[in-house]
Amino acid sequence: MSTAEMEQLTSGASNRIIPLLKTLRTVLLFVHTFFLSLLLFILPRRRRRVISESLLDAPSSKKRKSAWKREEEDTLRRRALAECYGTGDEHCPYRSATFLFFGGRNNTLFCRSWVPVSGTPRGILIIIHGLNEHSGRYADFARQLTSCNFGVYAMDWIGHGGSDGLHGYVPALDYVVADTVAFLEKIRLENPGVPCFLFGHSTGGAVVLKAAYSPKIEGMVEGIVLTSPALRVKPAHPIVGAVAPIVSLVAPKFQFKGANKRGIPVSRDPAALVAKYSDPLVYTGPIRVRTGYEILRISTHLTRNFKFVSVPFFVLHGTADRVTDPLASQDLYNEASSEFKDIKLYDGFLHDLLFEPEREEIAQDIINWMEKRLRVAVEDVNVT
Q1: 145-171: per-residue pLDDT in tens?
Q2: Stated pTM of the model
Q3: Residue 351: inside a domain
Q4: How far apart are CA 62 and CA 71, in angstroms?
Q5: Residue 318 belongs to what domain range?
Q6: Which of 91, 280, 322, 326 falls 20 to 30 Å from 295 in CA-CA distance?
Q7: Within a domain: residue 365?
């Protein structure tokens, strides 16, 4: 695959935010919608009702029902695909399974597990994938973990993979944080006494890090692992950051057409790029307004609060990553108050570390860190 062809295959985090307000037509549409909504609040109730009835007539109601039905049908289609995704060899030394989990808002989330066949696992890693992808992509990583006697569980976010919601739409990343916490509690309850770790990639890394700010979560995990976390994500222009909160309320599901026509490669492995962007469970459409704003919001919050991070963590980042900032990962390491923390920067590597040509070596670095963390935890218990 040529470099030009590789550039057509792009990631789903920060470079999808860049085209906000790219055209005057888009700006005018937002302004028109905003002031129309404002007008409905300002006008007297009687006149407002007349306008509302003229705007929200029967055809509009039918359109909304039709859109909801299409969304539901798409969710069921994606769930069926997720069920068949990456089914392993029946002779492999682990058991894989899929199941449904009900999140904090009673939304149905699609989940996976890979568990060693024999004995109790020495630890469990819970995977929170990145923006626009899904848990099934981490099957090879899970197989490597199970070969070292670690159990693996993974959850598709709302609007991702086989979970409920409009594909690629995240109404609030705090919802994903809450679902992650609830999922962790479920796995711990089902596996009493087994140490747990949280893993997050890219925006999933931001989700895991925010969840770990809670002292409650810090006491539930042995540590967290972050690959290419979405920290210090910035809009292309200050006006984007100023307008994004309003636009995300007025037209949260609006897509920016034409985004990512030429984007940023996320792996140096051409086959990995083709596999990712030909996967029907990976969202490749333009980013939705609310989703983009949520990434900006959580990234800003985390960057301002690095010093409050006290959970044990291991952050990994490629120095050539142009989607998320490796220097932000270095700042997290420098500023965090955690006593047990490590960082590894891979020279020349790109964004999707576990899909780089050296993926097995990177996965082994993660396994080695978890083993080291478990040894230290045992030593601490013996000392006390």
Answers
A1: 999 999 999 999 999 999 999 999 999
A2: 0.83
A3: yes
A4: 14
A5: 71-383
A6: 280
A7: yes
